[in-house]
Design brief:
Layout (H helix, E strand, L loop, with lengths): L1 E7 L1 E4 L4 E9 L1 E12 L6 E6 L5 E3 L7 E6 L4 E6 L8 E11 L5 E5 L3 E6 L1
């Protein structure tokens, strides 16, 4: 079993910043990509940022230059720094990990429980 536990989120004023983190635990041989999706009310879930096992990053156009994704490979943790926030960033943020299981050596996707980010105007 693999669990992803998120922390962070909360209420922040427009123009402000916050950080969210997500740690993976369980019988993990290797984690390939990790990243973050978000879903606002009435909208589809969208990819915010991702980072590969090699450190290559990918960002949604709407967050480029404002958000930074990073990863601690020794702790199986992914972090997202959210800067220059606007009300349009308000959403539930979900982390994910592409995990090679230590039990059967197969690849599975796992998701965190989600954390609410609310940006006030």
């Amino acid at each position: 079993q693999v669990q992803l536990v998120e922390s962070g989120g909360g209420l922040v004023e427009a123009g402000g910043s916050l950080g969210v983190s997500c740690g993976a635990s369980g019988t993990i041989l290797r984690i390939n990509a990790m990243g973050w999706y978000r879903q606002a009310p009435g909208k589809q879930r969208e990819l915010v940022a991702a980072i590969t096992s090699g450190g290559t990053t990918n960002y949604a156009d709407s967050v480029k230059g404002r958000f930074t994704i990073s990863r601690d490979y020794t702790k199986n943790t992914v972090y997202l720094q959210l800067n220059s926030l606007t009300p349009e960033d308000t959403a539930v943020y979900y982390c994910y990990a592409d995990v090679v299981s230590g039990l059967d050596l197969r690849t599975y996707d796992f998701w965190g429980q989600g954390t609410q980010v609310t940006v006030s105007s």
